[in-house]
Design brief:
0% strand, mainly alpha, 6 helices
């Protein structure tokens, strides 16, 4: 039997998209550095555990304040309480940027312009957001990434 976490789901149920995580890992490293598959898997597991840790501590902070909803300030307090205080400024800046980028979503209750985007526009927007995230992670320094060769064969469609 699989080990269960506190909400009754197996550890296999709590994961991050492997392709996305692999892309992030590769983009954060110099182009000549390779990462073994088991090391990638370990990094992804560490990310899942980190998210679980921060979520759990954020919930504790929320409960101590007699709140029912975890708010961004609970996450920041959790980071401080767990010894990750040096990341608070960067996390808060990323949160503020996220708020600016999603202001239309909050106002309208739906994603603006997503339905009108072509697949190419959506991909370009995703790449822009990845570049901004890389810049934030590198303290504003953009690390040039080795360009991947053009994919061969049929490509999966974003339309489902």
């Amino acid at each position: 039997m699989e080990p269960m976490d506190i909400v009754g789901k197996t550890k296999e149920d709590a994961s991050l998209p492997k392709a996305t995580m692999t892309k992030i890992i590769k983009e954060m490293l110099p182009p000549d550095v390779r990462v073994a598959r088991d090391a990638q898997d370990l990094l992804i597991e560490c990310c899942v555990e980190f998210i679980n840790l921060i979520s759990s501590e954020s919930n504790e902070v929320c409960n101590r304040e007699d709140k029912k909803t975890i708010a961004p300030e609970h996450v920041l307090k959790a980071l401080e309480g767990l010894g990750f205080g040096e990341y608070i400024e960067e996390v808060y800046a990323a949160y503020e940027q996220h708020k600016l980028e999603t202001v239309d979503t909050v106002r309208t209750g739906k994603l603006s312009n997503v339905a009108e985007m072509t697949e190419e526009q959506a991909l370009a927007e995703q790449q822009r957001m990845f570049a901004e995230a890389r810049a934030r992670m590198n303290g504003g320094i953009t690390v040039p990434k080795q360009s991947d060769p053009e994919p061969q064969g049929p490509q999966p469609s974003l339309n489902t």
